[in-house]
Amino acid sequence: QVQLVESGGGLVQAGGSLRLSCAASGIIFRQNAMYWYRQAPGKQREWVATISSGGSVYYLDAVKGRFKISKDITKNTVYLQMNSLKPEDTANYYCSVSGTWGQGTQVTVSS
Known about the structure:
With 111 residues, the protein is mainly β. 0% of the residues lie in helices and 53% in strands.
């Protein structure tokens, strides 16, 4: 059974930084692409970033140059480093793998 647990969200001022973590269990971590999504109030969930099993990374245009996805295979954990945060980044952030979702972690950016 795959389980994902996100952490690291919080309240930050515009221009600040946060690092989200997603600890995975029940999967062969190195064989799976990992994803970050976000959902703002009243909006649909949107894809934010992907890290492939081989380490290739992909980003939503709106976060390119500000967010960085990475993973630590020894810890079965994927990270999302978020810099230069903007109020429009406010959302609940979720990690996902193989159709499984975590519970999400809230990020709120004040102006």
